[in-house]
Design a protein that fits this description.
The structure holds two protein chains of two kinds. By secondary structure, chain A is α/β, with parallel strands linked by helices. Chain A folds into two domains: 222 residues, 2-enoyl-CoA Hydratase, Chain A, domain 1 (Alpha-Beta Complex), CATH 3.90.226.10; 249 residues, Alpha-Beta Complex (2-enoyl-CoA Hydratase, Chain A, domain 1). Helix content of chain A is 41%, strand content 17%. The radius of gyration of chain B is 23 Å and the shape is globular. In chain B, α3 runs antiparallel to α4, α5 packs antiparallel against α6 and α6 packs parallel to α10. Chain B is built from twelve helices and seven strands. Chain B has one domain: Ribonucleotide Reductase, subunit A (Orthogonal Bundle), CATH 1.10.620.20. The longest helix of chain B has 39 residues. In chain B, a hairpin with a 2-residue loop joins β3 and β4. By secondary structure, chain B is mainly alpha-helical. Classes of the chains: A alpha/beta, B mainly alpha. Chains A and B meet through α18 of A and α1 of B. The site of one fe (ii) ion (FE2) has 5 residues of chain B, from α3. The site of one fe (ii) ion has 5 residues of chain B, from α5 and α6.
Chain lengths: 550, 481
């Protein structure tokens, strides 16, 4: 079954989105029988990929369609349970690849929630009544403020280790230690106690920000929402930009969006993603931009690229290499960059830029070999040039190629390449690329806004190789054939290690450390063997652990 | 359009690969050419670059009449790119790709392995030219001088052959490897050639003959197994190289044979029967047979090292991936995949040597080495028949494979040429009995004097039975300038 990521609130099964002026409520009310796959019921507000696809959509829409919303309250639509986390039966039955992909996507969505709070003035708070366990607490951890009802039974917990022999792998442990800075022994107790922590202790340990009695609960949520809204810099009286359904035509191995196309070669295991440059001039005014709405080229490309990446991740497991290409005029792309830069104080422009940051992170985190081909007809400029620096390898055409008349391949860098779209590690892709060689950045910055041709790009270290028309076809073919002959596991592991040089952040720790360990645990018999805890969950049988430490 | 196989002499680089319409490779080769020429001038035969040498140049690739002879200045030699005729619809003959059409392009999956095979083979070719560059000054005749130069220009052409493959099929990396082939130097401490034997000195003409007999034959065996490759351009290139290689083997075998003949003649004339009466024999100005044996011991053992470790996963991988076959793979009758086959490998076990069955795939180096030993031995037997015919009681013997080895199962063991174990001290104290000593070297060197009179030969070597290209005895093979 293909996973589809396109949805809208009218199709939601599990979430309700209630908006009133500056406040929104995102209410989780999971349809038990609405699981994406067969064979499990989504009891106790537990979630599967389908629930998270809707959440991802809602988080995204809130930012574009509701510019005036300053506070988003996450709450449950069910009595006595906030959220029980990822559905265990679903996890027990899922293939390893599905688990890993699911886990990464949910992580990205939680990061998008934090991005909204921290960079976009749309601040999330969690209003927790009832059990808030595992992935449920991880969801709450992604907000800026957790209010827990103090009713003697409601608790927050991370029961994964004790109950399921896996980790709270959606950022749980990392956010406990690094975001909420819970003392390590308390974190140890918390993460190994199935029942979790309630009331005053939860507050004392900083697992929540407020505790409040049932009767005063709504009042406090209301009060906090008001206080937090004051911190927001979002506008008051702007009209939102509707995100209309993406237009996508899929034929066999060729997918056509409006500004992105995907061509798959399943035999070789290579997927080409081509970004089509703008057809129309960049707008001259904010009014014109607002009129273009979701038809505005950079926004279209971001949404379409985002969807293409997700589809490849979930639906095309044997595409081991993604080749990025682009077609258009680099100088036209620069005009768009300039427009965005000039108007970055406007809420809509800010959302577009932040969205590009998230999409580019999605590129960084895609566990496929990423290759950029910079040809004479390509338009890798500004934010599109970031794709080159997100790639594991890049090849650039040097000199004139017969089929392209007299045009030579060029890259144009703009200010957005110097910090506009940071990676998970907090650095720009160029800073990460030239870690320890900061002087190179100075040389590169001198070339701002001017076309950089292959020889110079090679010299400046912006591309891995430049090839003339004599070598081009063979170099690319040989590279792809060689790459696809290597072990996919070894490549995923190698790339995950070469891509993220530099400092650790909560995000890099989640994707690098927590997830890697979680994926290790997910492969071990103590979790997924026939007598493993994840497999036996709900059967009443006790897991039989192999006691050897590894 | 050129006829298939026809050699194009119009372009600066004679070839039968359609270079004139292959802008890409032509450009790359032309870029490489000046560096090659300066390498030749710097590292090629010293002192004879202006001489006119009666050389054969390949003008076709069909058997019979593929070469023509003429006087050439070596730097003007027309080094070309020549591949054996293409066999239509050739199928891969071995390994996991057996039965599939032979590859006309490098499969990306095997790029680095194939590139490495080409680079190692390519590295040996110029190395031998470098090793032999001083020999012209002591050539025992114009005939021998010409043979030396013939071998040199052809080894250099073999370099071209490998460079062509690197440039045509391996892109940028291949081109930089092609440059690398001109940068390394035999015996250079900082940038040595890749294989041990190709960094040894070739101090005298007996060494030269031994080298072409023993070491060039390793090259021949390697070429034979590459000639089976599933990568068709490599197979075709090496097949044509083998036609040239035959002459190199001949120079080696007949050279040693002529040295032996001269020694036997001198002994018989002087009435010396005992081949070990070394001082008296040397006083005749010829090389005694025991010293020839020592030279054979040295060159044979160095050449065995070139086959690599007896048990080798690299060799197994190259075979299994259909990149490098066995000697005359196409004449062998088996599954050509060696799935369950074993091969006996001689191994040191508790102080003795035993044949132990190993998986045939990992024992491929051993097998190729055995094929080599068989071939080498037959030439040695011809030398012995010759000694015998001259009425002298002496037999040249190939030493045990355990003797004087630096690579493989015997590299940490010292033995006599007969294969009896020794301590390292014992070996060191007796090695002058088995390997050329400093004194032996000095003696041979004392005989090495250039003879440039057409038809004349130095006193330590007999004239050949027939000339090159059916020329008469006094033919001026080299016109010195
Ligand atoms: Fe050769
Ligand atoms: Fe040779």
């Amino acid at each position: 079954m293909r996973v589809n990521f396109l949805t809208d609130p009218s199709k939601y099964k599990h979430w309700k989105l209630n908006v009133s002026s500056e406040r929104a409520e995102l209410v989780l009310d999971v349809d038990e029988n609405g699981g994406l796959y067969k064979g499990y019921e989504l009891k106790l507000n537990s979630y599967d990929l389908g629930v998270d696809i809707e959440l991802n959509d809602a988080v995204q829409r809130l930012r574009f369609e509701y510019p005036n919303v300053k506070v988003v309250i996450l709450k449950s639509g069910k009595e006595r349970v906030f959220c029980a986390g990822a559905n265990i039966k679903m996890l027990g039955a899922a293939s390893h690849a599905d688990k890993v992909n699911f886990c990464k996507f949910t992580n990205e969505t939680r990061n998008a929630i934090e991005d909204a709070s921290q960079n976009s003035g749309q601040i999330y708070i969690a209003a927790v009544e009832g059990a808030c366990a595992g992935g449920g607490y991880e969801l709450a951890l992604a907000t800026e403020h957790i209010i827990l009802v103090d009713d003697g039974s409601s608790s927050v917990s991370l029961p994964e280790v004790a109950l399921l022999a896996v980790l709270p792998g959606t950022g749980g442990i990392t956010r406990v230690t690094d975001k909420r800075m819970v003392r390590r022994d308390r974190a140890d107790i918390f993460c190994s106690t199935e029942a979790g922590v309630r009331g005053a202790r939860a507050l004392e340990w900083n697992l929540v920000d407020d505790i409040v009695s049932t009767t005063k609960f709504n009042e406090l949520v209301e009060q906090r929402a008001c206080e937090i809204a004051i911190r927001s810099d979002r506008p008051n009286d702007q009209k939102g930009i509707k995100l209309n359904p993406l237009k996508l035509k899929m034929e066999n191995n060729s997918w056509k969006y409006s500004a992105v196309k995907v061509d798959l070669d399943p035999k070789l295991g290579v997927g080409e993603i081509t970004i089509l440059g703008p057809n129309e001039d960049a707008p001259d005014s904010i009014d014109q931009l607002l009129e273009e709405g979701d038809g505005f080229w950079p926004l279209r490309v971001a949404r379409e690229l985002d969807d293409a990446l997700l589809q490849i991740r979930f639906n095309e497991l044997e595409i081991g290499v993604i080749v990025f290409k682009s077609a258009g005029s680099p100088s036209e792309v620069v005009k768009y960059c300039d427009f965005l830069q000039k108007n970055k104080g406007h809420w809509f422009v800010r959302e577009i830029l932040l969205y590009w940051t998230r999409v580019l992170k999605r590129v960084d985190l895609t566990s496929r070999s990423l290759i950029s081909l910079i040809t004479p007809d390509s338009c890798f400029a500004g934010f599109l040039a970031e794709i080159i620096f997100a790639s594991d390898r890049s090849f650039m055409c040097e000199g004139v190629f017969e089929e392209f008349d007299d045009i030579e391949a060029s890259i144009i860098l703009t200010s957005c390449n110097f910090g506009g779209h940071p990676m998970c590690n907090g650095l720009s892709r160029l800073e990460t690329r030239f870690l320890g060689q900061q002087e190179m950045l100075g040389d590169i910055e001198l070339k701002l806004d001017t076309p950089i041709f292959a020889e110079q790009a090679d010299r400046l270290g912006l591309v891995s190789a430049s090839c003339d028309d004599i070598d081009w076809d063979d170099e690319v073919r040989l590279f792809l054939e060689e790459r696809t002959s290597f072990s996919p596991d070894a490549l995923s592991a190698m790339e995950a290690n070469t891509r993220f040089a530099g400092p650790e952040t909560i995000e890099t720790k989640i994707f690098g450390r927590l997830t890697a360990w979680q994926n290790w645990v997910f492969q071990r018999p103590n979790a997924v063997g026939d007598n493993g805890a994840l497999k036996l969950y709900g059967t009443g049988k006790k897991a039989d652990f192999d006691k050897k430490r590894v | 359009m050129l006829e298939a196989n026809a050699v194009d002499y119009e372009t600066s680089i004679p070839n039968n690969v359609g270079l004139s319409s292959d802008r890409r490779v032509l450009k790359a080769l032309e870029k490489w050419h000046p560096g090659y020429l300066s390498w030749w001038n710097e590292m090629g035969p010293e002192g004879f670059q202006d001489s006119l040498v009666y050389l054969r140049t390949a003008v076709g690739v069909e058997p019979g009449g593929w070469a023509k002879f003429d006087y050439v200045r070596m730097p003007e030699y027309r080094w070309g790119v020549l591949l054996a005729p293409k066999e239509e619809n050739r199928l891969i003959g071995f390994g996991q790709h057996k039965g599939q059409p032979a590859w006309q392009e490098v499969p990306g999956e095997y790029r680095s392995m194939l590139q490495r095979l080409c680079v190692i083979q390519g590295d040996t070719e110029p190395a031998s030219v470098e090793q032999q560059r001083h020999l012209g000054a002591t050539a025992p005749s114009l005939y021998d001088m010409r043979n030396l130069f013939q071998v040199n220009v052809e080894e250099a052409r073999h370099l071209w052959a490998m460079v062509y493959l690197l440039q045509k099929y391996f892109g940028k990396e291949g081109r930089s490897e092609a440059e690398g082939l001109l940068i390394r130097r035999s015996g250079d401490e900082d940038r040595p050639r890749m294989l041990g034997a190709f960094n040894e000195a070739t101090p005298d003409w007996l060494s030269f003959f031994m080298f072409t007999y023993f070491t060039d034959r390793d090259g021949k065996m390697q070429l034979e197994s590459l000639a089976q490759s599933g990568f068709d351009p490599l197979a075709r290139t090496t097949r044509f190289m083998l036609t040239e290689e035959a002459h190199h083997m001949f120079v080696g075998e007949s050279g040693v044979s002529r040295v032996i003949q001269r020694t036997c003649d001198a002994m018989n004339q002087a009435g010396i029967e005992n081949p070990f009466d070394i001082d008296r024999i040397r006083a005749l100005g010829v090389i005694d047979l025991p010293t020839i044996q020592k030279k054979a011991n040295l060159h044979y053992s160095l050449s065995l090292d070139l086959f690599g470790s007896e048990i080798s996963t690299n060799a197994a991988t190259a075979f299994n991936n259909s990149l490098k076959g066995r000697y005359r793979e196409d004449k062998i009758e088996d599954d050509h995949q060696l799935i369950n086959a074993t091969y006996p490998v001689l191994k040191p076990v508790n102080g003795t040597f035993k044949l132990v069955d190993e998986p045939a795939l990992t024992a491929l180096n051993m097998r190729l080495r055995d094929d080599y030993t068989r071939e080498t031995d037959s030439g040695v037997r011809r030398w012995n028949r010759q000694i015998n015919k001259n009425g002298i009681d002496f037999e040249i013997r190939l030493p045990s494979v355990s003797f004087n080895r630096s690579i493989g199962l015997f590299s940490n063991i010292d033995t006599t040429p007969e294969g009896d174990s020794l301590t390292q001290e014992e070996f060191l104290s007796r090695q002058d009995d088995w390997l050329p000593s400093v004194d032996d070297g000095a003696f041979i060197s004392s005989l090495m004097e250039q003879v440039t009179e057409p038809g004349s030969f130095a006193g330590w070597i007999s004239p050949p039975r027939i000339g090159i290209d059916n020329k008469t005895g006094d033919f001026e093979y080299v016109r010195l300038q």
